[in-house]
Design goal:
CATH class of the largest domain: Alpha Beta
Strand order of the largest sheet: 15-16-17-20-22-21-23
Strand content: 25-35%
CATH superfamily of the largest domain: Alkaline phosphatase D (PhoD)
Oligomer: single chain
Number of strands: 26
Structural class: alpha+beta
Number of helices: 6
CATH architecture of the largest domain: 4-Layer Sandwich
Radius of gyration: 23 Å
Largest sheet: 7 strands, mixed
Distance between the termini: 55 Å
Shape: globular
Length: 534
């Protein structure tokens, strides 16, 4: 057990750090809270304690992300060999207090099918222009005639199961790194802002789980500093930092980046943990922290915080990243018979974007990266009339499409009538692994083509499930691996942590999905053959 003695706004890994001093040797110094008044107390050169990340790699572009411990300018050097022959150096943006000293730089004009080697360093904004030691990383741009391998999953540091160094840290990230994926889809719940992390807590069978802790994770996040602290906490893990330096990422969010089961109608009046009761304010602060720490490409000024987007990987794959949070109506009994503001889930504008994108796609496979599953019943308590209130799409009714199901029914009907083939849904959220086949022959709503949905997670959080299923879209549970009946919130000690791996063969165009456990062992595999035509 290690408890980090750092202030609430500290940008530190622990109470002390090995820094490269002017003498040319590493020295141990106390870490300091970074404010304008005590810049002189910092180590003599900038520090990059959170490492680097790559994001949204595709179409010859890539985002490079990092964070400094003080006001500084980001610099990026990249080349196509380890010796950095004929490298290009880019003068990046300033990292200032307003962004919590985070910065990102886009690389453009990247050739396909190449390894890209990257160095990042910061130069402080003093007259001395002190430079940090560079942090290095690499990634690969997908070639038009290459196989594609990627991984996905969600749910990190939830239910109080944080970074346990005695356990090996969040070692599922090392298991994912070992398969050498071209990219990783972070399917949501990248942090748990509503879940305090204590120094230790009891796990199953009387075992004790010990956590690294920081003041920012000791309570629910309410201030901007506390939301930022959740991301910095995860980056204390060496497995994650090593993974980030090699595997480009595609981020989306779900509820725990803000507060459990949030929508604009969330009510915190009866939750004593929160002194801030204004959910829109919490959403605003959480969104700011997410945008600062996610290695994603900012959208245009038209909608600067938009998260839904498409990333293309040549003729084999298009990834459609959707947002099931920002445009939803309130959580209700979800039984409305006609569409309206209360039944919105993706929202009209995003739905039209997705339909048009799927229609226009010429990639063999169209992966829809969703932050919640379609046909699992996910509850959110009861309403004032005592009716079950629902958090996701399904409503436990098993009947014709109703509530949020109406929007999804419209999407599925569009896909069928436009004869769009080879669509696969990937998601997380429910904290167990599953493979679902949606069969119109067994559904109440039948006007759609059959499709698969695969669920992976948690990456480092409590294990739950399995959820009950809704029959509206004919969900068939082909595989599920979850805690035994009567058990819930199992720690990573139980081994029920999962990620998904996808392989697309360039010759056969077959897509194979493996659901893998904490140690990289496949617990389920399914190969799908591509249908000809669109």
């Amino acid at each position: 057990m290690r408890k980090a003695a750092v202030p609430a706004l500290a940008l530190a890994l622990s109470a002390s750090v090995q820094v490269f001093a002017d003498t040319g040797e590493f020295q141990t110094v106390d870490r300091q809270n970074i404010t304008e008044s005590n810049q002189a107390d910092l180590p003599s050169v900038p520090q990059m304690e959170q490492g680097i990340q790559f994001g949204d790699v595709g179409d010859g572009r890539a985002i490079v992300w990092s964070r400094c411990d003080r006001p500084a300018r980001m610099w990026v050097e990249y080349a196509f060999d380890e010796q950095f022959t004929d490298s290009k150096i880019i003068r990046g943006p300033h990292a200032l207090e307003v962004s919590d000293f985070t910065a990102r730089q886009e690389l453009t004009g990247l050739p396909s099918g190449k390894d890209v080697y990257v160095k990042v360093w910061f130069e402080d904004l003093t007259n001395a222009r002190n430079k940090s030691e560079p942090v290095t990383g690499r990634f690969h741009t997908v070639g038009k005639h290459e196989d594609i391998r990627f991984v996905w999953g969600g749910d990190t540091a939830g239910q109080g199961w944080g970074i346990n160094e005695a356990f090996g840290g969040m070692k599922i990230y090392e298991a994912m790194r070992q398969v050498k994926p071209l990219f990783f889809i972070q399917s949501g719940d990248s942090v748990y802002s509503d879940s305090p992390i204590e120094a230790s807590q009891e796990a199953e069978n009387g075992q004790i789980w010990t956590n690294i802790v920081t003041p920012e994770v000791a309570k629910v996040a309410e201030t901007l500093a506390e939301f930022r602290g959740r991301y910095k906490y995860n980056l204390l893990d060496a497995n994650l930092r090593r993974f980030n330096a090699e595997v480009p990422q595609i981020w989306q969010w779900d509820d725990h980046e803000v507060v459990n089961n949030w929508s604009d109608a969330k009510d915190l009046d009866n939750d004593p943990r929160y002194t801030v009761k204004d959910v829109p304010l919490l959403i605003g602060r959480a969104a700011r922290a997410f945008q600062e720490y996610a290695p994603l490409r900012p959208h245009t000024a038209e909608e600067s915080e938009r998260l839904y987007r498409k990333i293309s990987y040549g003729p084999l794959l298009d990834v459609f990243v959707i947002d099931m949070r920002n445009y939803r109506g309130p959580n209700t009994a979800n039984l409305q018979t006609t569409e309206g503001p209360e039944t919105a889930f993706l929202g009209e504008e995003q739905l039209k974007w997705l339909e048009q994108g799927l229609k226009d796609s010429r990639a063999t496979w169209k992966v829809i990266s969703a932050d919640m599953p379609i046909g699992l019943n996910i509850g959110d308590g009861v309403d004032e009339q005592g009716q079950p209130r629902w958090e996701a799409i399904a409503n436990g009714d098993n009947g014709p499409a109703a509530g949020r199901e109406l929007e999804i029914a419209r999407l599925l009907r569009f896909i069928k009538h436009k004869r769009i083939h080879n669509i696969v849904w990937l998601t997380a959220d429910v904290h167990y692994a599953a493979a679902h086949f949606y069969d119109p022959g067994r559904a109440q709503f039948k006007d759609f083509s059959p499709f698969w949905e695969f669920v992976a997670g948690p990456l480092n959080a409590g294990s739950f499930g399995p959820n009950t299923t809704d029959g509206t879209f004919g969900l068939q549970v082909v595989f599920a691996k979850a805690p035994p009946a009567g058990q819930a919130n199992l720690s990573p000690y139980a081994g029920l942590q999962f990620f998904g791996e996808v392989n697309i063969d360039r010759k056969t165009r077959e897509l194979t999905v493996d659901l893998k456990d904490l140690y990289g062992t496949s617990v389920f595999s399914k190969t799908l053959r591509a249908k000809p035509g669109r």
